[in-house]
Amino acid sequence: MNSKGNYKDSKKKKKNNVEDKNKIMFDVLANKTEMKVEEIRNQYNSFMEICPEGTMTKIKFVELVEMSCKSKNFDEENEEEDQKTELHDEIEFLADSLFRVFDDDKSGTMDFSEYIMALNATKLNSPEDKLRWIFNVFDRDGGGTIDKEEIKAMISSLFSMSQIEVSQEEIEDCTNDVMSAIDINNDGEISREEFVSNAINSKFIYEMLCEQ
User: pTM of the full predicted structure?
Assistant: First the structure.
């Protein structure tokens, strides 16, 4: 086979690998968000048109969240100017807070999976929905369980989201509080059902939810 043929085969394999990875990612996101795979695929295509490099900046994310929230909650033509300003400030705060949760490496960007999970947070109403979302964010591989280190990362991110500065000792104390409230069978692994059913018994989680 000539070099041209080898190049075509290599390109085809690379494309197939990307498609396989995307299919897995779409399935995981569908399970976490209850969105349809086709809807996620369409969101992905739109995301890549806006961000062809595969990552989204904070400025662009804030713009898109604002557009999404306004389309669902706001009739601009019938609202006063001060109400528009108040809504803009609330949405910007929400988007900024969500972005901090996902930008744990301080790179100033988020990828598509993070974008979908963050956008999904704008649709939450009940405490159970919020707890389910929190769990799904930190269940990185979609396996259905999280451990103590992931709980610790969760707590650190929730403090960051609320713009509260705390020490590592305080984070450790909160982690132990959450684990004792949730890990009823003491096996070190927290399932989604355990988390949603028992997390509210944690003083830290309860206070965080009440502040939202």
Answer: 0.63
